[in-house]
Amino acid sequence: MPLHRDQIEDALRTVQDPDLHKDLVTLGMVKRIEPGEDRIALTIELTTPACPMKDRIRADIERAVREKSSACGFGEPSIEVEFTADVRRPNQKLRDQGSPLPNVRQIIAVGAGKGGVGKSTVATLLAVGLARLGARTGLLDADIYGPSAPTMLGLTDLPTAARGNMLVPFDVHGVKAMTIGKLVDPEKPLIWRGPMAHGAFKQLATQTDWGDLDYLVIDLPPGTGDVALTMAQLLPLTGAVVVCTPQRVAQDDARRAVRMFQQLGIEVLGVVENMSYFVGDDGKEYDLFGRGGAEVMAQTMSIPFLGAIPITMSLREHCDLGTPLGNWTGPGAIGPSIDELCRSVASRISIASLQGRYVQPTLSVT
Ligand code: ADP
Question: Among 53, 87, 121, which residue terminates a domain?
């Protein structure tokens, strides 16, 4: 006799999502239970295709169902677990309030205290990495003072297109991308006054036809300026990722960026240490800037540390050539550290969504 559906469900009630600290049944993740004498098939819906805990959840399910089966005096069926994912919205409040981007589930800003620390590089890797892990992802290059997406994504020779009054995003490297860099003359210096920056961001964000997205990654200009303020007022953000190099000076600036997000009511999902160390041709790792500095900063500010990216020649080359997917191929590729970073960001987002920590920023000017 096979285990009954209810008995299997009971077993699944003992399996917790390690990040969300609740059981799979309570979290509504069990989508299909197919009982059988020799084979039990299950479909579990995760909160992100980039879930870092997939293997652990699978092992816990197999153990729990096997234990249940032997406790009930049945045999040892094979257990097949299929994973799907539904990236959930931050909370009900968001649905009620209405978002100018109703088909985008999670919006993540990537910011930095100052330029040149690799903010655009991290935003690009995050977007392409999440897409590789199976999420529908967009990248909005809102760095109006120095847009990098045309180069980093290889958009320079691609024509821009519009449908009605909506911009059609570029469909590249598995990601839907839009950048101010394709809408203005690249040779002309851009001087933006506050209201112009506000208008440009609003148009880019809301007049791009993003379609259905799990994640929209926004590459902000460096520092603590007008665009971040507009974004916070306009869009329901899930949270922000702050990029920092290990050096002291970079940390001081990153701290200011963290405070800015916090003041705007945007949850800081965590800090990424870019240029953490250098990997030489001999494969040796050199701590050029004092590896671990950003992690210490994150600890002192009580915010999560999301991961580190080394400096490598090939990453620099792929940035210049507009071939981000190349970071996942070839010997010594940094793909695995990017995947780890994507998984930890996705996991922080799932936790923030479940806890419904999203708050609409309120700004008072005195
Ligand atoms: P920011 O957005 O903070 O101004 P970028 O992401 O545009 O900085 O980085 C500037 C350049 O530095 C990139 O085009 C890339 O060539 C290089 N770069 C950034 N991070 C790395 C890294 N980890 N390894 C190698 N080169 C990097």
Answer: 87
